[in-house]
Amino acid sequence: xxxxxxxxxxxxxxxxxxxxxxxxxxxxxxxxxxxxxxxxxxxxxxxxxxxxxxxxxxxxxxxxxxxxxxxxxxxxxxxxxxxxxxxxxxxxxxxxxxxxxxxxxxxxxxxxxxxxxxxxxxxxxxxxxxxxxxxxxxxxxxxxxxxxxxxxxxxxxxxxxxxxxxxxxxxxxxxxxxxxxxxxxxxxxxxxxxxxxxxxxxxxxxxxxxxxxxxxxxxxxxxxxxxxxxxxxxxxxxxxxxxxxxxxxxxxxxxxxxxxxxxxxxxxxxxxxxxxxxxxxxxxxxxxxxxxxxxxxxxxxxxxxxxxxxxxxxxxxxxxxxxxxxxxxxxxxxxxxxxxxxxxxxxxxxxxxxxxxxxxxxxxxxxxxxxxxxxxxxxxxxxxxxxxxxxxxxxxxxxxxxxxxxxxxxxxxxxxxxxxxxxxxxxxxxxxxxxxxxxxxxxxxxxxxxxxxxxxxxxxxxxxxxxxxxxxxxxxxxxxxxx
Length: 483
Prior knowledge:
Blueprint: H1 2-32, H2 35-56, H3 59-70, H4 74-110, H5 118-132, H6 136-144, H7 148-172, H8 176-201, H9 211-221, H10 224-245, H11 248-261, H12 263-285, H13 289-322, H14 334-356, H15 363-385, H16 387-412, H17 419-432, H18 441-467, H19 470-482
């Protein structure tokens, strides 16, 4: 777990720096972009994310898995990398042409508002998505080769380039929402050039294309594609549906709250970047792997859940000082998005059991149920309860995905997790969400301290039971008994 912690720390730090920078830019964006403009940006970003998922076809997951099958044979590994890279670029170049020809009709299936047109919004995001494909194979190789510094350097570089041009277009060129999209496009093109250069110089790609290797990867990844698309719909359909029933400004307010809550997504994805290769290697080579995973999940909830709890308790105060008054209602959204992504992080953890057992066929069904619940309830409840309903439903959809995956993983690769302790910790975090209803600052601070103390007590009890910290546990117990 030391190796996991070291690499995970680098992934987390780089992703934290990128997203901390993005969050620091929010006051600038919200100063120059009205809630309506931010709503446009959010809707187009959702469209781009769905297209990106289709273009990637889940092949980054296949590269992560099949790399270990070929890594001991340099010639076969280069053949595999080349095959996947050429296929991704060649196939999606044709796909891009089709989207440019018929994109206007497809775009307006998702977005009806006349203020959001395919040209230039959809057009720009399609080209950005295509050039992002050049990073899929190199970034995946950095991860599986345990090269977190390289991964971090390129991710930070892409952000700096995109952010610099976005600020220029928004602040100095009055580019509004389109200015941000243009900045992202320049960042994607810049990194595409660098990644192709690296692949050539390191001789990771050769003039070879192996249909059998591609077929095996597609067979592995294709069952994941509906799952990934449906997962993206779960994450983005809320804003699409809000646009259908509520003002465009509500989309912008919800999007800001969603963006701030997505800091938890940043954290869980950063950990997952290191945790997935570690899981496969540990499951294959460690004699007591399941015991390691049992402890890991609870430690994961303690560390990541603790961060989530802090975010839930103090997000309202942060938003008050950080954003203009026009965006203040986003404080009702942030705590629920934080918790939803914490649950999604746990889903990533237990889903690795299915990946390792090569039982990916279950994922589309899990995602289909989650998406149906999400979209159906959003259509039913957003017209009545507005953006708050969308946040609550997002939590529910993630709970369904996690619960179903957990049940199935128990059969594919059973691990005896600390269920009782895990439920206690998650219940404390979930209960803390109700602090958003407390307007009195002093009372809210007092209640927050109570939640933090309770969470710490349960955490220390688990740590003591597994690593024998009797002295610390005794002091904590006396403190609570005295209280």
